Amino acid sequence: MSLDRSTPARGGSGAPQWSRLILPGPDPVPVQIYRPAPANGPPAGFLVWAHGGSWQHGSAAEWHHATASLAERSGWTVISVDYRLAPRHRHPRAVHDVLTALSWTAGQAAGAPLAVGGDSAGGTLAACAALVARERGLPLAAQVLAYPPFDPTCSSPSYRRSPQAFPQAALLRQAWLAWRGNGEPATYDEDGTRVYSTPWEAPSLAGMAPAVLAVGAHDPVRDDVDSYARRLRRDGVPVRLLHPPGAVHGDVLRQDSPVLDHIARAISRKDLS
């Protein structure tokens, strides 16, 4: 494990402190860790976060301001994962990297709430990691997902309502193909755990962590998110579904992101369920 730096995420004594670590393992995983300012007391919990970028782009460094802001607004320590990218690294490698970060963070949390989350493609990874956590008996306080795509065919009506809106269905289908190939329903780890590339392929979502879901009203992936919320509720999983006014896909990268505001408020509540 290597420590690169520990410095305020931005100026001011109330800013989160951040550091970069390499988590050890067969496939070492770089992460950036954002801790709320010590003056604000101990962290409310630990949130492992996967950035967006169509599974092929992005990095923890590019998401620095978003994850630092999330830590500051929520009071949670945020662990931002530099997972391996497609097409060089296809499913399930990115999910494995998120799971490595989850396992390490569970050892750091010392009984504090532990959650997994992400935006866009990272939200898909986080949901898949939450399924594995369920199978392995790792308790999670929440899955916190910002506008994640779940349907590899991109065929729901919301993709057609605003055909020029980002992400366009044709481009997103290509991204799915680059990440999951021809889309085997699941791969299996050595312990027999199934690792899905989308939770839509899981026969049941029962027993998953409570969900905080955020998506804009006109986001092309809205139907994916709303459908996931309905299925979670049908399987007995508590859901908080948020439609922040003015939110767009990629919203967490905006300085005045309503999505970050809404999910930070949601996870700041003591009762996530």
UniProtKB/TrEMBL annotation:
Alphabetized GO MF terms: hydrolase activity
Record's keyword annotation contains Hydrolase: yes
InterPro entries linked: AB_hydrolase_3, AB_hydrolase_fold, GDXG_lipolytic_enzyme
Record keywords: Hydrolase
Enzyme Commission number, as recorded: 3.1.1.-
UniProt keyword Hydrolase present: yes
Domain (Alpha/beta hydrolase fold-3) ranges: 47-250
Region span, Disordered: 1-23
UniProt cross-references to SUPFAM superfamilies, sorted A to Z: alpha/beta-Hydrolases
Enzyme's top EC category: hydrolase
Designated name of the protein: Acetyl esterase
Organism (species): Streptosporangium sandarakinum
